[in-house]
Specification:
Helix content is 53%, strand content 11%. The protein contains 19 helices and 10 strands. The chain is globular and about 65 Å long.
Length: 451
């Protein structure tokens, strides 16, 4: 009874210091530092937490607080402070897999992929029960090893965590051929102790592996199988679909870093699509948006140079897609970034997604001061945003989907992928219990033109 009471008291104390700035009333001590880290982590930005840590140093105990602090330093990009902290933590906690895991992330953002892989493999050995650790190894294998070897290692990873969304997602993202998809699918089908509900946590991952490998019919089949499990009552509940949004991912800092890198290299670019909408309408990126969009005109486009530029810059890591030439990035704070090539075709300019393209009237670029930052944007924002979002672009539209006829400037280039898109939407509606909306999406999947 006493131990239970002490546990409850400890849990109450942790919740209290995370919710209120109790640390301000405490004398300088390890307890004050712990309370400050918990509060600033929950209620502020990585930059604010790092500002505090610069005065007191990154703590070394307890390990949980030290890792919260170190991850905040990582997201804020203060690598000298982080390197010192990781060296100290590795000496103090030689058996903690989370320490070399963070070291792997730091090395990866600096483009030092071989030491990153070595650190990731060490983390996996120390914490073999961590799907995130194995996912990191899978990702870095593709940066260091021949594709054939990385493909084999990715497929071999599947039986260890076949129900882990994180591991399966990394395997799926790296799938760039029909042969690799076949290996991944076979490894998952042969998983140990299969159960009917195994599919639902990883259906999107398996479908993504299929579509990235060019097997769109198979991708649709995974979603159809998941839908059948739910509609037949074989499985009664599904994990709620997760979507990435920019909220809490330091999108402003990402925009600053994008301007720093591209302006510094003399690349002519502009913020596009939803990012332009947020900057023009609200003076900031849209918190509900899924990524930061940029454009580069065809005459300025050099994909190899962009890849080299962002590989060298420690604020960004590459996140490429095998089915498109866009340059995908991940900012240190977590924000996804897409850089699109805008090319002329007839009297329009277009940029491509995987299965669609969007048109705009030709436009010039101008710089605007927004939030203290000079940002490049289409010079005629009214025309540009009407073309992208319609005349009511000033009114927020929750649920807007640029891959459907919500977007007035959409052209579908690969209809089979759009059928996959609607089938995925059907599954996601069903997963939250909306059978009527799921049926509507399935009807659109059968005849995308009807949507």
């Amino acid at each position: 009874m006493l131990s239970q009471a002490l546990t409850r008291a400890k849990q109450t104390g942790v919740r209290t210091v995370a919710r209120w700035p109790v640390y301000r009333a405490l004398p300088p001590s390890g307890l004050r530092t712990y309370a400050a880290i918990k509060y600033l982590h929950e209620n502020s930005t990585p930059e604010a937490l790092v500002s505090y840590l610069r005065n007191v140093g990154v703590p070394v105990r307890p390990l949980s607080a030290a890792l919260v602090a170190a991850r905040a330093v990582f997201r804020a990009g203060h690598d000298e402070l982080l390197d010192e902290a990781l060296t100290t933590l590795a000496e103090r906690y030689p058996h903690a897999g989370a320490v070399p895991a963070l070291r792997a992330d730091l090395e990866s953002f600096h483009g030092r992929y071989e030491p990153a892989l070595a650190a990731a493999e060490q983390a996996d050995r120390l914490a073999p029960g961590s799907p995130a650790g194995l996912a990191r190894v899978v990702k870095l294998n593709y940066r260091v090893r021949p594709v054939e070897a990385a493909d084999e290692a990715a497929a071999a990873a599947v039986p260890r965590f076949p129900r882990s969304p994180e591991l399966m997602w990394q395997v799926a993202l790296a799938c760039a051929s029909a042969d690799q998809y076949a290996r991944v699918a076979a490894a998952w089908q042969d998983r140990p102790d299969p159960a009917p509900d195994d599919l639902l946590p990883v259906v999107r991952q398996l479908a993504t592996a299929a579509s990235r490998g060019g097997e769109v019919t198979a991708a649709i089949g995974w979603y159809r199988a998941a839908i059948d499990l739910l509609t037949s009552g074989t499985v009664r509940t599904a994990p709620k679909p997760r979507t990435t949004t920019l909220a809490g991912l330091g999108a402003r800092r990402a925009i600053e870093d994008l301007c720093r890198v591209l302006d510094g290299a003399g690349v002519r670019f502009f913020f596009a699509a939803g990012t332009a909408l947020g900057l023009i309408r609200q003076g900031r990126p849209l918190a509900a948006d899924g990524d930061i969009d940029l454009g580069v005109f065809a005459e300025d486009w050099d994909r190899a140079a962009l890849l080299e530029l962002f590989t060298r810059d420690p604020a960004f890591d590459l996140d490429l897609h095998p089915q498109t030439e866009k340059v995908g990035l991940r900012h240190r704070g977590g924000s996804p970034v897409d850089i699109f090539r805008f090319y002329p075709d007839g009297d329009k300019v277009f940029h491509d997604g995987v299965f669609v393209r969007w048109w705009n009237s030709p436009f010039e670029i101008t710089r605007r001061e927004i939030g203290g930052q000079s940002v490049p944007l289409p010079a005629d924002p009214e025309r540009y945003l009407v073309e992208n979002y319609g005349p009511e672009w000033r009114t927020p539209w929750p649920g807007f989907d640029a891959f459907t006829d919500d977007a007035p400037n959409l052209e579908v280039t690969r209809p089979e992928f759009q059928r996959l898109h609607f089938t995925r939407r059907a599954y996601e509606r069903l997963a939250v219990g909306d059978r009527a909306a799921a049926d509507q999406e399935l009807a659109r999947a059968a005849d995308p033109a009807a949507g």
